[in-house]
Amino acid sequence: RREPLALINLKKKNEETGEEELSSRLNHFKAKATRHIFLIRHSQYNLDGRADKDRTLTPLGREQAELTGKRLASLGIKFDQIIHSSMTRATETTEIISKHLPGVKKVSTDLLREGAPIEPDPPVSHWKPEAVQYYEDGARIEAAFRNFIHRADVKQEEDSYEIFVCHANVIRYIVCRALQFPPEGWLRMSLNNGSITHLVIRPNGRVALRTLGDTGFMPPDKITRT
Predict the structure, then answer these.
(1) Residue ranges in the chain modelled with pLDDT below 50
(2) How many CB atoms are closer than 10 A to CB 2?
(3) How many structural domains is the chain composed of?
(4) Domain of 194, in residue numbers
(5) Predicted pLDDT of residue 224
(6) What local confidence, expressed as pLDDT, does residue 24 receive?
(7) Which of 216, 181, 182, 220 has the alpha carbon at shortest distance from 199?
(8) Alphabetically, which GO biological process terms does the record hold (predicted)?
(9) The 3-state secondary structure of 140-168, one letter per residue
(10) Distance of CA 223 to the CA centre of its chain
């Protein structure tokens, strides 16, 4: 989904009708619709679980997911799909949210699983994963960004609204990459459980951040960041 001019072999353009032909070919490659990306952080989960299957949502986490689902439903938007991380806490959050959005298809992916996207700058003392984790997780999370965060396909006629339920590290990295900020600064942002981050991708490829980690729809006593 690159800039249209980058998709055309300029050497092959007809010299006699070059400009006119180029304009016509560019229009063929130009996106027409806007994509709205809603990045949802999973709700609070059981931190004591040793394996992923044991890291289920807490009772409060289930409440948070209900509140997030109600908030998304209240927007009056016809969502196209929900893509979620295959990790237990994201899957459970998705199931609760989807109850408030009947008929919206759900798709699970390993690309959005939590991980260490890139070594943060400045570094932090309380979180220092092994260097190999940055290489393994970073490549996967970057692949998720390239696969999901792009301008609309040229065949897309109407604006789309998609929900991605995943994890704080993944969302923060995606926001930095989408806004063309240094990705090493991803850890400077903080996201609440069940929060909503809204990115808009215009047909020309420009990206705007409408909300970052919004939980204003939750009562203060329901807000957590674990």
Answers:
(1) 16
(2) 10
(3) 2
(4) 32-220
(5) 98
(6) 65
(7) 181
(8) positive regulation of mitochondrial fission; programmed cell death
(9) HHHHHHHHHCCCCCCCCCCCEEEEEEECH
(10) 21
